[in-house]
Structures are given as C-alpha cells and as structure tokens.
Amino acid sequence: MGNFLDFKNIFLDFSVNDRTKLRFFCIFQKFFEKKMTFFKFFLTIFFFFFLISSFWGSSTLFAQFKIVIPKTRIALNEPFNINVEGAKIDIDKIGNFPNIQNFYKVSDTYRGDMLVNGVVSEILTQAYHPTKTGNFIIPAFKIKVDGQDISQESITIYVGEKDKNRPDLEKIQKDSFIENPFLEFKEDAFLGVSTSVSQVKVGEAVHLSIALYVATANEAYMKFVDLDKQVTEIAKKLKPNYAWEENFNIGEISKNPPIIRNNNKDYKEYKFFEAVYFPMQAQNIVFPKINLKVNVLNKIETDKKDKIDPDNPEIAKYYIPKTFESNPIEIQVLELPPHPLRDKTPVGTFYLQEVYPNKILKTGENFKYYFQIIGEGNISALPKPTQKNITQVDIFAPQIQQIITRGGKKITGNTTFEYTIFPKDAGEIQLKNYFEWIYFNTQTQKYDTLRPQATLKIEGESVRNQEISTNTTNIYNKISKSTSKIIGSAPRANIIFFSKIIFAILIIWVVIMIFWRRKK
Fold first, then answer.
1. DSSP 425
2. Is the pLDDT at 52 greater than 80, yes or no?
3. Which residue in 86, 97, 232 sits closest to 152, CA to CA?
4. Average pLDDT value over all residues in the chain
5. pLDDT higher than 90, residue 320
6. C-alpha dist (Å) from residue 80 to 65, 74, 83
C-alpha cells in the first residue's frame, strides 16, 4: 500500500510538529498498514485531503503584529511611545525595543487592550522620555515578536517646549503605573458625512455616506448603541421632501474597515449609512447636522485592564455615553437647460439595447420587441419611449421589467419595455421613425435621443379586418447574450457550479482507480 513516511514527510513540510498532530499520524499509519476494505480506504483518503486543506487554510490564522507610533510631535514633558499591536502578545517572546539617542528609555513596558467594534487587540507600549527639544531622526529598526521580525521605517520626532498642562516627566516616572486605581484613555474619533458632489442639476445623483472614523491609534474602547434605531432616525432626518432616495441598506458594519487618511492621520472607516438622492426640483438640498450616540470606555480599574470583555456587565458599568455630531452640508441644485420636455426628461448616462426577430415576419402573427435602456441614473423613474402610430402594425402597451444595482456610489441597472406587435400589412418598417427616448446626458451636459436600429420586413396578405391572434410567439422572450453582462452573472455561476462537480468526480475516479490497481 505504499510507504506511510512519504505522506508523513509531506505533512511535516506544512510545519505540523505538535504532539496532537503526530498522534494523528500514528493512528493514520496503523490504518494504512492494514488491509482495508474499499470503504475504509475511501474514508482514509477523504480525511487525508480534509487534513491537508485544514492545515493549508490555517496558515492564514497566524497572529499578525504591527508597530504603531501614536505621536510624532510631543512636548518636552511628554513621553514618546512605541506600540506593538496584535492578538495575544506573549511578553516573553518580545525582542528588545531600540535605544534612541536623546531619549531616555523607561525601564517598564505598559500593556493594554484596544477594542474597536467588538474586536480586541493587545498593545505593548515602550515609553521614552526626551532629554531636549528639537527634531530627531529615529533610524529604521526591527522588533522580534513571537519569532517574526516587525519592521519600522525611519521617522522624525519633533520635541517642543514643555506643555504647561502636563506634569513633569520626573513626577510621572515616580508614580507607579500599576498602583494607579484607574487607567484613562482619550477617544480619537469623529462622525463624518461626505457627499460625491457639491453641485448638481435636477434629476442628477447625489451620493451620501455617513461613517464613524476611529483613529488607528485610538486607545479608548468604543461600542455602538442601538445602531439600527439610530440609523432609521438619521435617514428620516436626512431625506429631502423633494428628492427620490435610493437607500443602500447597509445590513452590517464591516469588521475589516478601510483605512482613510485625514489630516495626516489614519482612521478606520466604520460606514453605517449610504444612499443616493435624485433632486426633483431646483431647490438646494440641505443635509442637517446629525448625532450618533456611542458608548465609550475610557476609564477602567487597573486590575481589570487585562480582562476586558465588552459584553461583561461588570465592565459595561464603566461605559460613558458620548454623542458625536456632524457638520451640515448644502448641495446646490440647478435647473436643466431649456427644453420642451425638461420637466419629464430623465437624467444620467444611458444606451439602448434592443432585441427583435431577425427574420421575415408574417402578417397576422404576433412577435415580441424589446426596448431596453441600460445605464446610470434614477432607474426607478425611467419613462416609456415616445411612440408614434404605425398603420402597418398594431403595438400594444409594454410590459416593464427593472433591475436596479446599488453599489460603488452609483445607481445602475436597466429597464426593459417588452412590446407585443401585430403585423397587418406587408412591407418594411424602420422602428427609428416610430420610437424615441429623450434624456439629459450628464457626461456631455446635453440632451440626447435613443432611437432603435431595427428594420422589420413583413410579408403576407393584409389582415386589417381580422382579429388579432392570441397565439403570441414567445421565442424572443430572452434578452440577447450581449445584455447578459448587465442583467446578471447566472451563466458564470452555473459554469463554476458544474466545474466543482466535475472536479469532485475526477477525484473519486482517481481514488477508485488506485484501489482497483492495488487489489490486482
């Protein structure tokens, strides 16, 4: 049945070296060396691949650490700190912090926790006391954390005159960090409201997002309070009475928020509201200032600093409610240029996709014609194409289908008008002479018109006096392949699904062939 050591060496290449995993290999070896039925052999191979995939996936779970410099501008009586942040920092596995010229290294390191949105990280702080004022360049250095070398680039530290509101460092140094009854942290965060534009025309999109921005160096624990209820109230307060709203309905705040640079400082963006508004009249949109209530834990007992659990009632009593407030924003809304249909014209960027039978049609036989408008804008309010009478055919009121996509600060999608057409007389019909769709193009800042390119060829005797057949042809009920890129990605999903099935079948076939050959 082969040499089990070959398999064992493969696993050892993945750094499997603890006792529990070695016991598993011994058990696996006993099964491997015995004569097994097909069922046992199959199960062994299954667990073999399962273990590989588990170990492979677990490689991404190793703790990640980083060096953080909270401040690069300090007073002469203010410590300069170097932080190591990460999950489960083992203080016995931390290498030496660097010695820095013109700074006195405090003998003890400080250990704390940081909680943002329910995620706890540990912080190990090494403090340095400056010995004089001036600009000091700290060369690049490395700190070994649990066997990993964490690098920090060269930085410049500015030390100014003494801060009159701070005690001298000598007094701070004499005070015992552990003896202080409380640890105090100042929250570093703000509530931000941002818009995509400051000026639009009637019907043009205004994207708005609201987020709590928390500095990456923030030390205070922060926790949202009744966020769903607060967001509902905020949405009501923000929505203008004279604008159409497309709410993105953020269901859950990201646990890995993006980092935003603001005033030379990095912040984590915890976005909790996002929407697009389409003003319906030339009246400025005013987004008033809003409030967000957050619980802040910036003062805790020293003996609890290593036991922080944000949901622990004993710890929760130290939370203090804090209200963050945003600034109001005003968006100027301008009239569209003069046009006979200005009040009824959609605004955005659109193009036409049409589907029609590419064959000679017969009088007296119904067929489908699809006029599909695709693009970016207020998809929910797109009007029907303007239609002129055609004596050769009867055109019935269309069925309307819409697909709306909210994402990337935009509202995109398509509206499909499905027409049933009944040819009555033979001849050639160019639909561009009978359909048109007028809109204001935000890219060119001009009015534009979408017209069909379809030319219909009809043969047969006149059926003007016959009743319309109820046998409507439905073979054109599907949008063409070129439209599938807008409507959805179902074909691609099917390909992925069947590829997985084929891959699974191949694995089973290989296992069966190996077993069959060994039996021979």
1. S
2. no
3. 97
4. 77
5. no
6. 20, 7, 10
Interval 256-315: pLDDT, tens? 888 888 888 899 999 999 999 999 999 999 999 999 999 887 666 554 555 566 566 666
Residue with more model confidence, 500 or 95: 95
**DSSP secondary structure of 125-190:** EEEEEESS-EEEEE--EEEEETTEEEEE--EEEEEESPPTTS--HHHHHHS-TTTSSEEE----EE
CA dihedral 285, 288, 293, 296 (to 10 degrees): 100
Pairing of strands 455-459, 361-362: parallel
Question: How many CB atoms sit inside 10 A of residue 269's CB?
Answer: 17
List Cβ<8 Å contacts ≥24 apart for 388-393: 388/433, 388/434, 388/435, 389/434, 390/429, 390/434, 391/424, 391/425, 392/423, 392/424, 392/425, 392/427, 392/429, 392/458, 393/421, 393/422, 393/423, 393/424, 393/425, 393/429, 393/456, 393/458
Cβ within 8 Å of residue 117, ≥6 positions away: 222, 223, 224, 253, 255, 257, 270
- Answer whether residue 488 shows pLDDT above 60: no
Distances from the Cα of 112 to the Cα of 2, 140, 294, 361, angstroms: 53, 25, 21, 79
Pairing mode, strands 182-184 and 299-301 = antiparallel
β-pairing verdict for 119-130 and 80-86 = antiparallel
| 178-213: pLDDT as tens digits | 334 455 667 889 999 999 999 999 999 999 999 999
